[in-house]
Amino acid sequence: MPVYETSTQRARKIPADKISRYSPSLPRFNLSLVGLQDNEAHLWHYFDNFIAPRCVVSCVKNPYRQIVLRIAASSPHGPVLQAILAVSAQQMQALGHGESTVRIWDHRNRALELLRGHVLAYSMSEAEGKPNASMLAQEIMASTMMMCFFEILHDCSDAWKVHANFGKSFLMNELASNQTIPSDSKELFDFAAAYFTYHDALASTAGTNPGMQDSTSSLRHLLYSEESTLESLSGCSRRQVALLSEISDLAGQASCGTGGALQYHDDILERASSWQQKRDTIERNLHLLKEISVPSSSELSPKSAKEETPWLVPELKRLTCLLYFYARVDESNPSDPHMIRLTDKILELLPHTSLQTNTVLWPLFIVATLGVRSESDSDRKLILERLHLLQQTRQLGNVRKARQIIENVWKARDIDSCKGKQGWAVLEGRYDAMSLA
Predict the structure, then answer these.
(1) What UniProt keywords apply to this chain's record, in alphabetical order (predicted)?
(2) Which residues contact 264 (CB under 8 A, 6 or more apart)?
(3) Where are the domains of the chain?
(4) Do residues 222 and 190 make contact, with C-beta atoms less than 8 angstroms apart?
């Protein structure tokens, strides 16, 4: 064995089971068409076989493979490929699978440079009516999403939001300026709409600024009628994600007050009545989302901890939506009886939920910060154990940040430094760039 090994040699020592969980029914891409060097080909395989399967709840539809890799393969000199290689290199280093920091940032910087060039070329092509504008738009959209992916994986800093805001603006402009969207572009834009809507809906629950909630309200209407992409990414229906956004919007309306002392008394009463009707409608719809097939907690068997059933993720997130709803809209606290009941139900489901993907992070975060009481040491232990196991799976930057926020909230409650803040207010303003997707 040589004393000094290249990153490629180290990467090849990854156990086969670490990169083998993929569905053979999904399309494979001929690397000879891409013309990658040896190390780059390995990073490509690593994304295809290890990372992409862990980005979706259901393997029936995987837009990272079926859309993003296709675009990268069709344009091997474009930004999408470099962004994919940057993500793979970052993930490999985080898990101790090899790759140097220099190589990570080489791919990342190259992706950004190419992305800027594509944006400029797109602007010129669109102005001149050239036919390549559509392909450039696809590469810009896909590489922007992958840059969000990279920044969330790396350290979940403000950078991911910068990319997300550009991506949302670009997507809305594309849809507004084109009467007919090619089928391949429509598929990508469907993915992008689901990606940004889901990220924004969850981010708004973690105390992000009102601007992101405004974007969520606009993007929500861009989702196409076909929702399998959103379900694959999140385990949620479009209706469930829409309700989550409606909760944040409604809470934002309440925080704006009545609009000033000069309003007529009748106007104030009318606004209050309208707000209450919206609140009651959301609560009723959240209860109606419960699937008939959901068993009681006593019927959960040890087998379901190993084999996740189809109802589990939607029900876990429905209960989490309810917990967030009561904390955000009604300012309910962890010690309130209905919050205790919801928290207990969520904690019963968590050990049965797979940690293969990151979909459990949001329920963990919400129940830990808004549901778990200061005296519940066993509940805190369960949360920390699940966070640790989730972190070991991928070493994602947003999982590290989520744990930091959770521990800060617990400390604040333990020393009673919340200064009378009720419900969700304990989260407001703690971290502005949090991603829980």
Answers:
(1) Nucleus
(2) none
(3) 7-234, 241-255+270-426
(4) no
Q: Which residues of 243-278 are buried (b: 16+ CB within 10 A; e: fewer)?
A: bbbbbbbbbeeeeeeeeeeeeeeeeeeeeeeeeeeb
The neighbour count for residue 65, using CB atoms within 10 Å, is: 23
What 157-165 contacts at long range (C-beta under 8 Å, 24+ apart), as own/partner pairs, is 157/397, 157/433, 158/432, 158/433, 160/433, 160/435, 161/212, 161/432, 161/433, 164/196, 164/199, 164/200, 165/215
User: pTM, whole model, 2 decimals?
Assistant: 0.86
Alpha helices in 350-396 (DSSP H): 361-370, 377-394
Residue 325, φ and ψ in degrees, nearest 5: -60, -50
Query: Each residue of 273-332: pLDDT tens digit?
Result: 899 999 999 999 999 987 655 666 555 655 544 455 778 999 999 999 999 999 999 999
User: Residues 114, 120, 126, CA angle at the centre, nearest 5°?
Assistant: 125
Residue range 245-280, pLDDT digits in tens: 999 999 888 766 544 444 566 677 888 889 999 999
**Nearest partner of 324 among 244, 411, 410, judged by Cα:** 244
Could you give the CA distance from residue 267 to residue 276 in angstroms, rounded to a whole number? Answer: 14
Q: Is 23 left (phi over 0), alpha (psi -120 to 50) or beta?
A: beta
How far apart CA 383 and CA 413 sit, in angstroms, is: 16
C-alpha–C-alpha distance, residues 103 and 12, integer Å: 16
CA atoms within 13 A on the CB side of 1: 5
Question: How many residues are given for the chain?
Answer: 437
Picking from 139, 109, 113, the residue whose alpha carbon sits closest to that of residue 125 is 139
User: Would you give the distance in Å from CA 12 to the centre of its chain?
Assistant: 30
Q: Pick the more confident residue, 174 or 87.
A: 87
Q: Which amino acid is at 283?
A: E
DSSP annotation of 260 reads -
Task: Name the CA radius of gyration of the chain, rounded.
Answer: 23
Calculate the CA 133 to chain-centre distance.
Answer: 29
Residue given tokens 């007919």 in the structure block: 180
User: Which residue is it, tokens 């002392």?
Assistant: 261
Instruction: Tell the burial category of 95 from Cβ atoms under 10 Å away from its Cβ (0-12, 13-18, 19+).
Output: middle
CA distances from 412 to 33, 340, 356, 408 (A): 56, 20, 31, 6
pLDDT over 80 at 436, yes or no: yes
Using pLDDT thresholds of 50, 70 and 90, give the confidence band for residue 12.
very low
What rounded mean pLDDT belongs to the chain?
A: 82
